[in-house]
């Protein structure tokens, strides 16, 4: 069984299915189709399937012209029908892995996808999990589910874990420039993965097991969480001691070794950094190990929206104050509101009876909880009517000079006004 799949990958007749057409799945499906493989994207969300079929853009990093061409050529097909799994050679799982509640993973989407795969699993298939998850998911959850069909991993089918490291909005490191780590349940599994992905990725790094690969991803995101937590604490410390944290980080980063700059901000958002380390925390706890670093950094970063609101209150008592929140997505230039700290800031401002407005070039309407409003156009009149504008997400397309000129006061949580000495600007 192993040889035929190897041959099919080499001559590109291997057919691929990608389950989950989101930030991870769609770019991957497009790259594989561009490399000459026939790709079927399967999603339970019929809107996403409709969008792919009609090349309607919904993921910033994916060129809709590519999608249009690939769909027209029929090398990329999108469907909600899982029966297609029976016809493909490679199945890649890219479904969400959220939290049930803080510190508790929710791998139900993975289990749903694997339940579907089980029904169609046949000899010779390679199954790849790309969703970020805790160490042991592939070996302890997926492998027994797939082997319950009577088929045996390494003999009948192949199974690997390979974390996705894509960074939405990062033009310097698109998918194909980021080395891919893989851990196979068997060596042949990792070998087949490498053979396939070397068509789209410059470098594949093989580790000893799926568990190691799962932990690699969690280390990377825990590293970020902890370092962001550290500089967030330093920002609070510097404010208390009347120092400029941004100046200190900029000078520290001139050291050519042993230091890597991280920057403070209004909190950590998105579908990865806030929750991935908690997957590791949870699994380690099952083994009787309590990670103090992860908990501390997570709690510290979670406290940042409240810290920002307290600093705003100190600048202008919030009840009745007109506050303009600039940027509501979790990250600069990325249209993604998942776990976005600005939303928590808006919520807290409202709870403190402030009159809250927002502007974001990527989000014309904002609806969450009881907040359901249209973005405020950034006119001189609107800006001058505000008591304070707060830069929460520093989108490139904001006209920062214009905003400064017409605002009474700006609280800058991102150092968007780096080097500007205006006394209207107060930094985090
Ligand atoms: N977004 C990122 O930047 C990023 C980066 C690296 C890793 N990851 C990880 O990749 C995984 C996917 O993240 P994402 O950002 O692409 O999520 P997403 O929400 O953008 O996309 C997931 C897609 O899966 C679909 N889906 C859910 N359950 C399904 C099922 N049972 N069958 C078929 N489709 C299903 C959803 O409808 C959705 O379209 C997560 O584990 C995440 O942690 C994300």
What does this entry look like structurally?
Helix content is 39%, strand content 16%. The chain is of the alpha/beta class and 428 residues long. The protein folds into 2 domains: 2-208, NAD(P)-binding Rossmann-like Domain (Rossmann fold); 225-427, NAD(P)-binding Rossmann-like Domain (Rossmann fold), CATH 3.40.50. It has an 8-stranded mixed beta sheet, with helices on both faces. It has a 5-stranded parallel beta sheet with strand order 12-11-15-16-17, covered by helices on one side. It has a two-stranded antiparallel sheet with strand order 5-6. It is globular, with a radius of gyration of 24 Å. The protein starts with a helix and ends with a strand. The mean pLDDT is 96. The structure holds nicotinamide-adenine-dinucleotide (NAD). Nicotinamide-adenine-dinucleotide is lined by residues 19-25, 42-45, 48, 94-97, 109, 112-113, 131-132, 164, 166, 168, 271-272.
């Amino acid at each position: 069984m192993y040889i035929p799949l190897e041959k099919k990958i080499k001559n590109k007749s291997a057919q691929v299915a990608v389950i989950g057409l989101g930030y991870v799945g769609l770019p991957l499906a497009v790259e594989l189709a561009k490399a000459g493989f026939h790709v079927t994207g399967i999603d339970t969300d019929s809107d996403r399937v409709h969008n792919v079929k009609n090349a309607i853009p919904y993921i910033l990093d994916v060129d809709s012209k590519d999608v249009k061409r690939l769909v027209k050529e029929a090398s990329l097909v999108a469907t909600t029908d899982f029966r297609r799994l029976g016809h493909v050679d490679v199945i890649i799982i890219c479904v969400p892995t959220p939290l049930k509640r803080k510190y508790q993973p929710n791998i139900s989407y993975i289990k749903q996808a694997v339940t579907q795969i089980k029904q169609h699993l046949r000899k010779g298939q390679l199954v790849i999990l790309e969703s970020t998850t805790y160490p042991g998911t592939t070996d302890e959850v997926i492998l027994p589910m797939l082997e319950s069909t009577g088929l045996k991993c390494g003999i009948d089918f192949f199974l690997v874990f390979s974390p996705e490291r894509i960074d939405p909005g990062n033009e310097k490191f698109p998918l194909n420039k980021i080395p891919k780590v893989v851990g196979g349940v068997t060596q042949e599994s990792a070998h087949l993965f490498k053979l396939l992905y070397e068509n789209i990725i410059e470098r594949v790094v093989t580790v000893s097991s799926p568990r190691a690969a799962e932990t690699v991803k969690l280390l990377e995101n825990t590293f970020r969480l902890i370092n962001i937590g550290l500089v967030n604490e330093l920002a609070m410390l510097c404010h208390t001691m009347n120092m400029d944290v941004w100046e200190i980080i900029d000078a520290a980063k001139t050291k050519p070794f042993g230091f890597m700059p991280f920057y403070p901000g209004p909190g950590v958002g998105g579908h990865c950094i806030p929750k991935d380390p908690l997957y590791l925390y949870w699994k380690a706890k099952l083994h009787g190990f309590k990670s103090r670093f992860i908990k501390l950094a997570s709690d510290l970063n979670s406290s940042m929206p409240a810290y920002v609101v307290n600093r705003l209150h100190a600048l202008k008592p919030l009840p009745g104050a007109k506050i303009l929140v600039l940027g509501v997505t979790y990250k600069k230039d990325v249209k993604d509101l998942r776990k976005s700290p600005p939303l928590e800031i808006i919520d807290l401002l409202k709870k403190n009876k402030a009159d809250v407005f927002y502007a974001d070039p990527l989000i014309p309407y904002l609806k969450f909880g009881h907040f359901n409003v249209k973005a405020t156009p950034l006119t001189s009149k609107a800006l001058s009517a505000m008591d304070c504008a707060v830069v929460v997400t520093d989108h490139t397309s904001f006209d920062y000079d214009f905003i400064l000129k017409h605002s009474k006061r700006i609280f800058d949580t991102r150092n968007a006004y780096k080097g500007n000495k205006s006394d209207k600007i107060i930094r985090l």
